[in-house]
Design goal:
Blueprint (H helix, E strand, L loop, with lengths): L1 H59 L1 E2 L10 H15 L8 E6 L20 E9 L15 E9 L3 E2 L6
Parallel strand pairs: 1-5
Antiparallel strand pairs: 2-3, 3-4
Helix pairs in contact: 1-2
Length: 166
């Protein structure tokens, strides 16, 4: 009978140890899982931003003069197209900034006017900044205040834009 009681105590002791180990390890595993999910969200968000810049830059590098709305500047069109692309990919556009600047030379960092003839064949940089909260699914918002910033350099050209698919 004494051996039977001792076996019961040993089993309870192993169960208690397992419960204690689980209580220590479970939060660490949960934190790792949530971190992995956040990294995935950040990567997906950065990819969407880079794609939007690429599409905006492609259009900005072409001759789109006949495609502007009345009173719309070339820069405003490209900025709006980038925001629309982001919205279409599921990125909220609240707080998003888009800048189009000279990429090199004495004017590097100053605003680049896409419509200016003086900028023909010049390099320009499109930079988009998106608040991380716009791409995160995290309700706790662990990355509050962080931003996704992406930029790409393009050359202003005059490749005709042809929307006719004949």
């Amino acid at each position: 009978m004494a051996n039977h009681t001792h076996a019961r105590r040993a089993k309870r002791s192993r169960t208690a140890a397992a419960a204690t180990e689980f209580a220590v390890v479970a939060p660490v595993l949960a934190l790792m899982y949530l971190g992995t999910c956040e990294i995935g969200q950040a990567t997906a968000g950065a990819t969407k931003v880079a794609s939007a810049i690429r599409e905006g830059g492609r259009l900005a590098s072409m001759d789109f003069s006949g495609k502007l709305l009345d009173g719309q500047t070339a820069n405003a069109k490209i900025e709006r197209d980038i925001l629309v692309f982001l919205e279409a990919t599921g990125v909220k556009t609240e707080g998003v900034t888009v800048s189009i600047e000279h990429a090199k030379g004495e004017q590097a960092g100053t605003e680049f006017d896409l419509a200016s003839e003086a900028n023909y064949l010049q390099l320009f940089r499109i930079t988009v900044t998106v608040p991380y909260r716009n791409v995160s699914a995290d309700p706790v918002n662990l990355m509050a205040g962080q931003r996704i910033v992406a930029s790409t350099v393009f050359r202003r050209g005059r490749t005709p834009v042809n929307y006719d698919l004949d």
